[in-house]
Design goal:
- There is one protein chain.
- This protein is an alpha/beta fold and 231 residues long.
- The protein is built from 8 helices and 6 strands.
- It has a single domain, classed as Uracil-DNA Glycosylase, subunit E (3-Layer(aba) Sandwich), CATH 3.40.470.10.
């Protein structure tokens, strides 16, 4: 039943047209493309969550990339941010592969699921506050359908803020003063341990602000907090 309910939520996400600016952008990019992907059929729709329905760890990103998930249809798939994240997941035994290229490439997650605060690719990777607020209820509903989740890994300040907002909407009290984002930040909110990590964007990974070892360490900590058995 849980898998059916998650599939129904994913179908609703994929059909969403709440935000005119995002709808126009994602669909225009899917037509215009970029030269290196000119022969590919773009997804051009919202990218739903992906992973294990019995996940104990939920990884929450910002939004799909215009030529990443907006092209492939799977979160953090088909771009360098995804390569970085899936490698760290694989190192920690949470992904069957460290390479995520296409929605149908056979990759699976075990013990983890990945989703986003905003499910449509935004111009300049920057959703508006109104777009965030329009999409955020999906995260609350997704969490409600993932009763085994014990740890939420929030990628970047936008992810951290969105996760806290979603948990407040679910009726959980946020500690005061409001927890601040930082790499390695950790706070208990209701039944969840929320961990902060720098987002695996090229701005962070190319400059060394976020290294592969740092990303892997956050996910190792998430495994520990989620009480996932070792390999």
């Amino acid at each position: 039943m849980r898998r059916i309910d998650l599939a129904a939520l994913d179908a609703e996400v994929m059909a969403c047209r709440r935000c005119p600016r995002l709808v126009e952008w994602r669909e225009r990019i899917a037509i215009e493309k970029v030269p290196r992907f000119r022969d590919e059929a773009y997804w051009g729709r919202p990218a739903p969550g992906f992973g294990d329905p019995d996940a104990r760890i939920l990884v929450v990103g910002l939004a799909p990339a215009a030529h990443g998930a907006n092209r492939t249809g799977r979160v953090f798939t088909g771009d360098r941010s995804g390569d970085f994240l899936y490698q760290a997941l694989h190192v920690n035994g949470l992904s069957s592969s460290g390479i995520s290229r296409r929605r149908d490439d056979g990759l699976t997650l075990s013990g983890a699921r990945i989703t986003a605060i905003v499910h449509c690719a935004p111009p300049a990777n920057r959703p508006t506050v109104a777009e965030r607020d329009a999409c955020l209820p999906y995260l609350g509903r997704e969490l409600a359908l993932l009763p085994e989740v014990r740890v939420i890994v929030a990628l970047g300040g936008f992810g951290w803020d969105g996760v806290l907002r979603a948990l407040v909407a679910l009726g959980h009290a946020i500690p005061r003063p409001r927890p601040r984002f930082g790499h390695g930040a950790q706070v208990r909110v209701g039944p969840y341990a929320v961990l902060g990590s720098y987002h695996p964007s090229q701005q962070n990974t190319f400059t060394g602000r976020l290294t592969a070892q740092m990303m892997a360490a956050i996910l190792a900590r998430a495994r520990e907090l989620a009480d996932l058995p070792g390999d």
